[in-house]
Amino acid sequence: MQDYSNRFQDHWMCFATVLDLPQDISQNIYRILSTAYNESQRAYHTCQHIVECLNLLHDIREHLHDPIAVEMAIWFHDVVYDPKSSENELRSAELMKDICSNILNEVRLNKVYAWIVATQHHQPTDDADLQYLLDIDLAILASEKQRFEQYEQQIRFEYAWVESTLYQTKRQAVLQHFAQMQPLYQTSYFQQYFEEQAKLNLQAAIDC
Known about the structure:
GO terms for molecular function: hydrolase activity. By secondary structure, the protein is an all-alpha fold. The chain folds into two domains: 1-137, no CATH class; 141-208, no CATH class. The chain has helices spanning 2-19, 23-37, 47-60, 67-76, 88-100, 106-118, 128-137, 145-158, 164-180, 188-193, 195-207. α3 (47-60) packs across α7 and α4 crosses α6.
């Protein structure tokens, strides 16, 4: 994971430059983010996930109306993560608002807040930038076989406190939900390049 930690830091330094953040503020936010995404209860919701999301963001940045807002949402969308809580997205949005209140203007701040909350349920939306954000967050489902299997193992680790039979039942329901979504992804880009592989991965996991 060290490579992901280094890339996480590099991504942040680039974003801090775009935001024109003073060094002390940039370093303080980086410490908060790095500490959060390296917490011991995490296996999937880590620096690796954020780096993978940011790599995709840079691939589709030209399609976005407000790439700064989308990137800020990526940085903070899982900053609070307790596998036993149903309020992670709300708490992440609240923390983002507290930290970024003097960095983003009010319109952008409220937009990022709403987008982070939206990552909890991944409902269809007419907001094009939010569509890309949600698709990026689910892009792991379309990863190559080894990474998808690693992802499944990481999720199991985060829910190690759930009894095995119950976990399998609940996990199957989640996978079925995504497999039955038509389409799974909301943007034409992700539908073209990610949809087919995601459905194959999901069906393979369901059939196991």
